[in-house]
UniProtKB/TrEMBL annotation:
Domain of life where this protein originates: Bacteria
Stated family: Belongs to the peroxiredoxin family. BCP/PrxQ subfamily.
Its biological purpose: Thiol-specific peroxidase that catalyzes the reduction of hydrogen peroxide and organic hydroperoxides to water and alcohols, respectively. Plays a role in cell protection against oxidative stress by detoxifying peroxides and as sensor of hydrogen peroxide-mediated signaling events.
Xref: PANTHER family: SLL1159 PROTEIN (PTHR42801:SF7), THIOREDOXIN-DEPENDENT PEROXIDE REDUCTASE (PTHR42801)
SUPFAM superfamilies: Thioredoxin-like
Keyword Transcription regulation carried by entry: no
Name assigned to this protein: thioredoxin-dependent peroxiredoxin
InterPro entries per UniProt: AhpC/TSA (IPR000866), Peroxiredoxin_BCP/PrxQ (IPR050924), Thioredoxin-like_sf (IPR036249), Thioredoxin_domain (IPR013766)
Keyword Oxidoreductase attributed: yes
Record region (Disordered): 204-225
Organism listed in the record: Gluconobacter thailandicus NBRC 3257
Amino acid sequence: MSLQAKLDAFKADFEAGKPPYNVPASVIEVMHRATAELISSGAAENTLKAGDQAPSFILNDPEGNPVSSADLLSKGPLVISFYRGVWCPYCNMELQALEAALPSFRELGASLIAISPQTAVNSRKSVRQNHLDFPILSDVHNDVAAAFGLRFALPDYLVDLYTSLKNDLPSFNGDNSWTLPMPGRFVIGQDGLILYAEVNPDYTRRPDPEDMPPALRKATQASAN
């Protein structure tokens, strides 16, 4: 089953109010409204695209060690997944799918990292719960996400909903800004050029990891020439 098929099956159960979430229809309506407004805002049109130069960055892993994009790119192409946090079931399903695809990425000489605004403690929880063999880097204030064009502020009514559900983003992220990244996946060549970019303002839609190898093979061929 593809990643999107798994996400669609989860979404159907979630929106039907099934356990363990038992979410009422009023909550679903608010979430739909926020997603529709983010889509209509055109924010996704302002994100970095294939052919753009990727911004360089240094972010800490869950143990506090700095990880440099330049260092990673010196070894081969780079796959980056921006995701919302350990509290998001769609994100966790995506991380698990990326973990399953990790051997194929490594066969093509690529590194894989995930980037989230959450604190190191929550990133360690993500790694542990999803059995990950790749690092999750902490993007404090979503600054790197902003450099890729992904950062957006939650509308006040969605902040109110998250607060009522005890989905306290300031605690998860150690940041009071109530911002998140739109989920995004990028493949970056060793020259820093973006070879693949997929961003969706609908957080329930994610690209399949099997979409990455063609871009990675292109990156490998480019570095060999």
